[in-house]
Design the sequence.
């Protein structure tokens, strides 16, 4: 699709998607914000929910209600079946295959912590090395930093180019070495949308026998992902960033490794037998799901995946690419705009991070809010990267399937107002 | 009320752009840093005391217009005051933003009233309070 500001008539269509039809599925999009038509550009933080997902959550509470894996009655059986079906949906969505497991957590953050405690405490010892990149979200950073500190291991970093936030692989063979036990890397930066060459990093980790963890919180919600092709040992992501309810996350892992890990949380449902002196645990994945899970959330998430599959992740990826190209072209018309992230758009997802020169992002965000435009401002839970970029935070517009070129035009109009107040 | 009436009025923008009190005091008697982790405001406050009197107070750091304007107004308001007077002004300022109290500052520091509109924007209140809370912490630390 051509990048032209004059392309108004086909603004709400896309090579890939019927946006008008999609937008009707999201009730919040017709709620005004600050009295203006709502422009939601904070999908990196969380996504909006389509009516079918909302209906599924309501259906669970109004028609099913029962707990899973416990009752002998019909409604409990229904709940258990639907819960398991949601798990199958997730497995199919990322092509987990027969050797992979899907474990539901309360979020991607809990999934990383599960690995830190369940795998890390058992396998990391003094002198070992853990490798992360400098662009990680705190969720894929702090758990590893804490693990390293408590175990006397060393945390090493794959560096970031301060000019555009991309990863520098030049010294990878001195960073990932025989001492490396675990490599944790994000598949898409939540600050710049940059997508590191995860395949190369996984290959380097495998060559030294290190376990690999991929943070897919941004990638899985926007691009097709095949974990068998990716060949990582673990992948974490969250429901709420991909049209599902909050409070549900996923840990994908290879059974061969999960089987030898300690449970993270102990309690009901994850046990096989409990005696006064000993407890044995469920098989995978049950041993990692202690207590009553977020059943309504998981059912809603299962529905969200069906919705995404119907639209097609390739189509969503293409649509966001179109929006990114359009935003980049429009931004080039505004000299006061500083845009962060690789100029190679093939290495970028639908995240557009910027500042209006000299204006603090919080002020930019406040003025955009008055225009009915939702963006995220600040450090984006990635302090190390923000420090490397040397900025006082950024303003981040992040796209999804329901966004339009009109949303970006509104953003650019809002930026003009920011300039009017501050410059 | 529009955003320009409440948040981005002239007094606030002037204080934001003013660099008058933006400096570090090398051998400060009191010094402390305050951070809003979510939005990125990060200010450091410095106080040089002469007895019980604040001889000089400055700030440094990065923050949004509301935070920086608030820091500059704070320095203007507290320079030359005794610690006891400063505490009184701080209580008054917090009351204006948090309790909706009508401001009644002495004439020479009535510019502080410009910050009153911030109370209509709950997420910005913490920006407006950050420098003040930082000074309050320094003062109570000193009294421990």
Sequence:
């Amino acid at each position: 699709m051509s990048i032209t500001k004059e392309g108004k008539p086909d603004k709400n269509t896309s090579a890939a998607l019927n946006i008008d039809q999609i937008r009707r599925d999201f009730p919040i999009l017709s709620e005004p914000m600050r009295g203006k038509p709502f422009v939601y550009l904070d999908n990196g933080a969380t996504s909006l929910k389509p009516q079918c997902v909302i209906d599924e959550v309501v259906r669970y509470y109004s028609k099913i209600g029962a707990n899973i894996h416990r009752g002998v009655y019909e409604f409990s059986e229904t709940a258990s079946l639907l819960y398991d079906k949601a798990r199958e949906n997730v497995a199919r969505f990322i092509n987990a295959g027969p050797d992979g497991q899907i474990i539901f957590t309360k979020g991607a953050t809990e999934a990383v912590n599960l690995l830190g405690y369940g795998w890390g405490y058992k396998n990391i010892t003094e002198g070992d090395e853990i490798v992360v990149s400098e662009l990680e979200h705190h969720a894929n950073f702090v758990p590893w930093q804490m693990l390293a500190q408590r175990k006397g291991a060393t945390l090493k970093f794959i560096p970031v180019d301060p000019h555009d936030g991309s990863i520098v692989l030049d010294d990878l063979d001195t960073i990932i070495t025989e001492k490396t036990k675990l490599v944790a890397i994000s598949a898409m930066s939540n600050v710049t949308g940059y997508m590191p060459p995860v395949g190369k990093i996984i290959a380097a980790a495998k060559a030294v026998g290190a376990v690999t963890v991929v943070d897919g919180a941004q990638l899985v919600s926007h691009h097709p992902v095949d974990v068998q092709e990716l060949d990582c040992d673990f992948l974490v992501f969250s429901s709420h960033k991909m049209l599902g309810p909050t409070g549900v996350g996923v840990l994908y892992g290879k059974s061969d490794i999960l089987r030898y890990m300690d449970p993270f949380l102990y309690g009901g449902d994850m046990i096989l037998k409990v005696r006064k002196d000993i407890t044995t645990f469920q098989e995978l994945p049950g041993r990692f799901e202690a207590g009553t899970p977020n059943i309504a959330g998981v059912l809603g998430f299962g529905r969200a995946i069906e919705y995404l599959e119907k639209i097609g992740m390739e189509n969503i990826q293409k649509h966001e690419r179109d929006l990114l190209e359009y935003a980049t072209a429009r931004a080039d018309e505004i000299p006061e705009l500083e845009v962060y992230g690789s100029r190679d758009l093939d290495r970028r997802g639908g995240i557009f991070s910027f500042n209006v020169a000299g204006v603090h992002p919080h002020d930019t965000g406040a003025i955009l809010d008055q225009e009915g435009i939702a963006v995220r401002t600040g450090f984006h839970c990635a302090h190390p990267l923000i420090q490397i970029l040397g900025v006082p935070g950024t303003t981040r517009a992040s796209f999804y399937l329901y966004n339009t070129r009109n949303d970006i035009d509104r953003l650019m109009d809002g930026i003009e107002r920011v300039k009017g107040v501050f410059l | 009320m529009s955003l320009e009436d409440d948040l981005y009025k002239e007094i606030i923008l002037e204080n934001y752009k003013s660099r008058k009190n933006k400096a570090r005091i090398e051998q400060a008697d009191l010094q402390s840093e305050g951070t809003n982790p979510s939005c990125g405001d990060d200010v450091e406050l410095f106080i040089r005391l002469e007895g019980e009197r604040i001889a000089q107070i400055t700030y440094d750091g990065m923050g949004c217009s509301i935070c920086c304007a608030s820091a500059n107004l704070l320095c203007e308001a507290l320079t030359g005051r005794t610690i006891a007077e400063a505490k009184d002004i701080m209580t008054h300022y917090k009351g204006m933003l948090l309790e909706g109290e009508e401001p009644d500052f002495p004439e020479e520091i009535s510019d502080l009233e410009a910050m009153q509109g911030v109370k209509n924007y709950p997420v910005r209140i913490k920006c407006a309070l950050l420098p003040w809370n930082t000074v309050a912490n320094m003062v109570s630390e000193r009294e421990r």
About this structure: Residues 1-10 of chain A have pLDDT under 50 and may be disordered. The longest strand of chain A covers residues 180-186. Residues 361 and 395 of chain A are 5 Å apart (CA to CA). Chain A touches chain B through 15 residues (CB under 8 Å).
